[in-house]
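Hi V.,

Quick status before I head out on leave. The structure for the redesign project is tokenized and pasted below; the design run finished overnight.
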């Protein structure tokens, strides 16, 4: 069977993040990608100019169309900017008994532009976090979701991950890309108390647009191929780290450029 992953997220008109990054990631990792577009953005590597929300009823139509025909093995959820979108996505996932749900609680773009309405944070916490097998917040997102100060070390990262588990998360990959130090450390925290440390050399580049989207999509791709949670997260960390290291091979835009999603394929060709 062909592994299939579905992304439910916003579109990035510059191609570096959101739906576009997710589909590139699925393809690069050998997974067939389907998509449900929840919002359109007018953005580039320098910032987000506008967001156009897709009507909730049309989000539902897209979800039903995909699940009616495709055997979806994993679902990645990204940018959902409104309460209405969050609610219909949750209902659709339940209706189709979707599994292997990876939630990236996207709140702010790399450029600093806010992507999630303030009143949608509670809906996201209440409605989608408990349905996901894993959530993948970065340090600012974890702080916003828990109400705690920005984590400055691994102990505080673990504390915030466990706070999210108490709020219904089944597992948390809290990402340390916004931190400092020679290594970029992500921590996979599971309900039984287990903590797995995923570390990679920190790479000096401004081209990190779409990193969070790519990480969660790569985890979903691993789950779609039958990997366990740790193996999917570890493989995703390796893929993203190498894609960041190769990012400067591309010349895209004048701001925060994208990762090099196809570093393997372009090198071989």
């Amino acid at each position: 069977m062909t592994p299939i992953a579905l992304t439910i997220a916003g579109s990035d008109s510059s191609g570096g993040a959101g739906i576009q990054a997710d589909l590139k990631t699925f393809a690069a990792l050998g997974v067939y990608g389907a998509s449900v577009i929840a919002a359109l953005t007018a953005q580039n590597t320098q910032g987000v100019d506008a967001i156009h929300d897709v009507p909730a009823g049309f989000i539902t139509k897209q979800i039903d169309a995909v699940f009616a025909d495709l055997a979806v093995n994993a679902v990645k959820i990204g940018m959902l900017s409104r309460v209405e979108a969050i609610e219909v996505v949750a209902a659709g996932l339940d209706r189709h008994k979707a599994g292997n749900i990876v939630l990236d609680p996207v709140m702010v773009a790399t450029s600093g532009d806010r992507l999630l309405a303030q009143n949608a944070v509670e809906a996201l916490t209440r409605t989608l976090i408990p349905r996901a097998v894993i959530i993948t917040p970065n340090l600012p997102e974890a702080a916003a979701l828990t109400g705690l100060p920005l984590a400055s070390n691994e102990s505080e990262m673990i504390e915030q991950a466990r706070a999210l588990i108490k709020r219904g998360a089944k597992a948390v990959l809290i990402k340390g890309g916004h931190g400092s130090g020679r290594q970029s450390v992500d921590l996979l925290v599971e309900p039984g108390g287990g903590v797995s440390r995923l570390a990679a050399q920190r790479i000096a580049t401004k081209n990190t647009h779409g990193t969070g989207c790519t990480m969660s999509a790569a985890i979903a791709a691993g789950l779609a191929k039958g990997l366990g949670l740790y193996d999917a997260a570890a493989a995703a960390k390796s893929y993203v780290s190498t894609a960041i290291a190769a990012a400067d091979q591309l010349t895209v835009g004048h701001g925060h450029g994208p990762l090099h999603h196809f570093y393997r394929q372009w090198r071989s060709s």
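Above is the designed sequence. Strands lie at 4-12, 32-44, 47-53, 74-77, 101-103, 134-135, 172-174, 183-189, 195-201.

G. will cover questions while I'm gone.

Best,
W.
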